[in-house]
Amino acid sequence: MERINTYRQWLESEGLPVIGGYSVPDVMEAPVKPWPRKGGLGAHINLIGSEDTMHAYVCEIPPGKSLLPQRHLYEELIYILDGAGASSVWVEGGKKQSFEWHAGSLFAPPLNAWHQHFNGQSARPVRYLGITAAPTAMNLYHDLEFV
Q1: Which of 129, 142, 134, 112 is nearest to 4 (CA)?
Q2: Which pLDDT tens digit goes with each residue over 21-53?
Q3: How far is CA 50 from the centre of its chain?
Q4: Beta strand residue intervals within 62-96, DSSP E
Q5: pLDDT tens figures, 117-130
Q6: Paired residues of 51 in beta bridges
């Protein structure tokens, strides 16, 4: 019986470049494409040794723009590579909390909370690296709507 890998199916359905291998030479130079689900630009990183346990991605927020609100049932850690902006975090029926960040900032949106990232600069994009536990959650529940 063939094992279903929901994470790999999702990765293919995203339509973004997937950077593989053992390392990423320069995440600032990684090619990115429009990412309709997030509303920015992005590329997935699927390195050998972490393929089905950890997920990484590069995301770019165009100048003066914001990403779409997101919510998910897996942990995420965000490291700002370049630029400055702000994020809002909220739960259903709750008050939005906002904080600012800049290159070198590291933060994790709370699990299952809505969050949205904003580029605070009108002249240049923001680029960040996201590390998530998405593969584990997707392959545990096999239900992308839920996750």
Answers
A1: 142
A2: 999 999 999 999 999 999 999 999 999 988 788
A3: 16
A4: 76-82, 84-90
A5: 999 999 999 999 99
A6: none
